[in-house]
Write a structure and sequence with these properties.
Blueprint lengths: L3 H26 L29 H5 L14 H20 L8 H27 L11 H13 L8 H26 L6 H14 L4 H23 L11 H22 L9
Bound molecules: zinc ion.
Length: 279
């Protein structure tokens, strides 16, 4: 007798890797303003289209030995890495949401997709920010209404997932507002942009998904600590002195992912008695 949970978890993993494959296209094309639909995947060197049987996430990179089938130009190992990462995120999220047989409801499936879209946006945004130093609006502020709408639908559905639409609106307001005020103040005092508006718009989306309290103070603090612990040493190694060598977006994303999966543990130490569970 095969455990149905194992089968569905397998589906979730494969689904995640396929989303990861799509994110590779988004990361490569969105910042350059190219369509993410047309043309289909092709080798950037020789222009030959990727064969359907070579489009298998994670595995294809290995049987192609990391090279284009036609011109043998190396394919970045970032592609299978992102596919595998998204497969594991899908598995992790599935494991959090679907614990008992009665968890298999339409509302929970919708919740799974909503949070997986959010995680996908965070991952895509991070790699785009690392490479191009920008955060596309479509992965931040334009996604916020969908986040609020999603939270509203979950609530309407009677699901215990999510933060509710009111917390979602407040989260967007305080997420974008607090960081926006800091950015504005910095601009007025120091006369240059210390914080990108992309970060402000990203924290607006993050706020819409996690609510204002106690999520935002944690994410704000944790991302700053992570940035100092990781960004500054890299800056020093690159000979930039104490200047940050990395954009801030990936640290906001990382702190948010830590919060999504470990909020209850963090809050258990910080604010005993408070319940924070998203899924
Ligand atoms: Zn090629």
């Amino acid at each position: 007798m095969i455990n149905p949970f194992v089968v569905f978890a397998g589906f979730a993993f494969v689904f995640g890797t396929m989303v990861g494959s799509f994110l590779n296209v988004v990361i490569g094309r969105l910042p350059e303003g190219r369509s993410i639909v047309h043309p289909g995947s092709h080798c950037p060197h020789c222009g030959n289209p990727v064969r359907p049987y070579d489009n298998v996430p994670v595995l294809a990179w290995f049987w192609l030995l990391g090279k284009c089938r036609d011109c043998k130009t190396p394919i970045s190992s970032l592609y299978p890495t992102i596919e595998l990462m998204m497969g594991l995120f899908a598995l992790l999220l599935f494991d959090h949401i679907f614990v008992n047989t009665w968890d298999f409801t339409g509302a929970n499936l919708f919740g799974f997709l909503l949070y997986f879209c959010f995680i996908s946006a965070l991952v895509a945004e991070s790699f785009i920010d690392l490479k191009y130093y920008i955060i596309p609006d479509s992965l931040s502020i334009y996604a916020a209404p969908f986040a609020i709408g999603g939270m509203w639908l979950l609530e309407l559905w009677g699901s215990d997932m999510g933060v509710g639409w009111q917390a979602s609106v407040l989260g967007a307001f305080f997420g974008g507002g607090t960081l926006g005020a800091i950015a504005l103040l910095w601009l007025l005092i120091r006369k240059y942009e210390g914080m990108g508006w992309g970060d402000v718009k990203l924290l607006l989306l993050i706020g819409a998904m996690v609510g204002p309290w106690p999520a935002l103070p944690f994410i704000f603090l944790a991302s700053a600590v992570l940035a100092v612990c990781v960004g500054v040493p890299i800056g020093v190694l690159q000979g930039k002195g104490w200047k940050m060598a990395l954009p801030f977006g990936p640290f906001l994303a990382l702190a948010t992912l830590i919060w999504l999966f470990h909020a209850q543990t963090i809050v258990g130490v910080w604010l005993p008695g408070v319940v924070v569970e998203f899924f």
